[in-house]
Model the fold of this input.
Amino acid sequence: MVKVIELNRELDNSMKKRLVVFSLLMSLAGVSKAETPSVMQVLQKTPQWGLVQTGTACIEKYRFLPSGEVLIESNQERVSGSYSFITKENSFELPAVVISFQTDNQKPDCTGSRENQVGVSTTNFLKKESDQKIYFCIDSFGKNCPVYLRPEH
Done:
């Protein structure tokens, strides 16, 4: 009977240790998730972003204002509009930013285009590599991401 009691104590101590370790791991997981800002929070907290495109040294400047307004400068072009975020319930699809253009001065942008974008909307899926690099992707799975944003100072 003494051996059974000692064995129960050992099991109780072993289970208590496992429970403590498990609780600690769960609390750490909760803390790290809470401290990791979402891609939308990162975009909004950084005053200005530069859109880096392959094949051109010209950098488009994006400002995502807390009011939901977006201001874009591309070469001589000045565009403004509104933006909103779309998130998916499933974790395998990327969140997206939808930009609806409201003003366009029709000056040449980084590609030389003077196309009037008023009334046009774009959807870009957001793939966050880090707080310093966020890709604009064409697809919701992040397979085709030709340009990225970086903080501009």
About this structure: DSSP finds two helices and eight strands in the chain. Confidence is low (pLDDT under 50) at residues 1-8, 14-34. Residues 92 and 141 are 7 Å apart (CA to CA).
